[in-house]
Amino acid sequence: MIRLIIVALYLFLFLVLSIPVLVLEWLIGKRNPGLKDRSSRAIVRWGFRCIAFLSGARVIVKGQENIPTDSAALFVGNHRSYFDIVLSYLYFPGITGYVAKKEMLRYPLLKNWMRNIHCLFLDRDNIKEGLKTILKGVEEVKSGTSLCIFPEGTRNKVNDTFLPFHEGSFKIAEKGGIPIVPMVIINSAGLFEDHFPRVKKATVVISFEQPIYLKEMSREEKKNIGANIRELISKEYFLLREEYFPDKNINA
């Protein structure tokens, strides 16, 4: 429990003590939005790096060379833990936001930092509002900002399984003309969810797979893109699981 208390206390202090920084970032954004993007990214990365250290996370990263450098990308991954966001953000090369559920808007200060790094808030129960979020995402990626989405729609709570990938999750890539980068995350729940409410040291593997270009696909292939990427991530997940955790029962 000590590690959980330390991580929670750090997060609380970070949010409270960063209030003047948020004000400064707002002022910077009025004159130089690009500088605000870069400084907010640096601050959030530093905060996440501290959380990763305090939680005892050891991260093995594979396939960073697969991330396109000439355009924005839509990162698509399996989702098992709150730490999926904390850890994956450390390895995105440019300005990258997450597509989060609208319920995150209820958390003051946290939502401000999320907005600063270009996160979008999706209303899963309102089709019209969901479409607006997708269109906003298209604008973001066309301007050079990458996005990360977990198309299962929620954290999966069942070991070594994958929820269906919502096909609508990929519209941003299709309409924005950007590649999809499948992202496989293994054992992130070993830090927290597997033994809630304790935080324990754990090794996490994050693997970025070859980018997928929808413009090179037929209309029929695009119809099943969610299922196909789910299968790709699942296949790679079990290969990496066997490589790095052959004798351990872990979660997806």
Question: Could you characterize the architecture of this molecule?
Answer:
The protein is α/β, with parallel strands linked by helices. Helix content is 44%, strand content 15%. It has nine helices and seven strands; from the N terminus they run H-H-H-E-E-H-E-H-E-H-E-H-E-E-H-H. The protein has a seven-stranded mixed β-sheet with strand order 1-7-6-2-5-3-4, with helices on both faces. Helix 1 (2-17) packs antiparallel against helix 3 and helix 2 runs antiparallel to helix 3 (33-55). The longest helix is centred in the N-terminal third of the chain and has 23 residues, at 33-55.
Helix content: 40-55%
Q: How would you write the strand order of the largest sheet?
A: 1-7-6-2-5-3-4
Give a quick account of the main beta sheet: strands, pairing sense, barrel closure.
7 strands, mixed
Radius of gyration: 18 Å
**Terminus-to-terminus distance:** 24 Å
Number of strands: 7
Order of helices and strands: HHHEEHEHEHEHEEHH
Q: Structural class, judged by helices and strands?
A: alpha/beta
Task: Briefly say what this structure is.
The chain is built from nine helices and seven strands; from the N terminus they run αααββαβαβαβαββαα.
Topology:
Elements: H1 2-17, H2 19-31, H3 33-55, E1 57-62, E2 74-77, H4 83-88, E3 96-101, H5 110-116, E4 120-122, H6 127-142, E5 146-149, H7 171-176, E6 180-186, E7 202-208, H8 219-223, H9 225-244
Parallel strand pairs: 1-7, 2-5, 2-6, 3-4, 3-5
Antiparallel strand pairs: 6-7
